[in-house]
Amino acid sequence: MDAKLTIKLDDDVITRAKRYAKNRKTSISKMVESYLDSVTKPDSKKIKITPLVKSLSGVINLPVDYDYRKDYTDYLTKKYL
């Protein structure tokens, strides 16, 4: 059963939301419903892994002690110095 809900939002937010919804061929009501549904489900913190991500899983083998932060820091240092 659908019910009506009235909310107050900033005009700029409404304008951007309408544009966003139009570009995705959906409605603001559907967007709000989807958002509220996702955040109020008991298992909302559980991340669903798509088949594409599953297929990519394990493609790259990294050492157990790999430090991606150090690697990224080294990359940025070389890029900007």
Polypeptide structure, described:
It contains four helices and no strands. The protein has one domain. The protein starts with 10 loop residues before the first helix and ends with a helix. It has 81 residues and is mainly alpha-helical.
**Cα Rg:** 21 Å
Question: Beta-sheet strand percentage?
Answer: under 5%
Task: Tell me the major beta sheet.
Answer: none
Quick one: overall form?
elongated
What count of structural domains? 1
Number of helices: 4
**Order of H and E elements:** HHHH
Number of strands: 0
Q: Helicity level, as a percent range?
A: 55-70%
Between the first and last Cα atoms, what is the distance in angstroms? 61 Å
**Which whole number gives the mean pLDDT?**
89
State the oligomer.
single chain
Quickly give the structural class: mainly alpha
| Sequence stretches where pLDDT stays below 50 over 5 or more residues | none
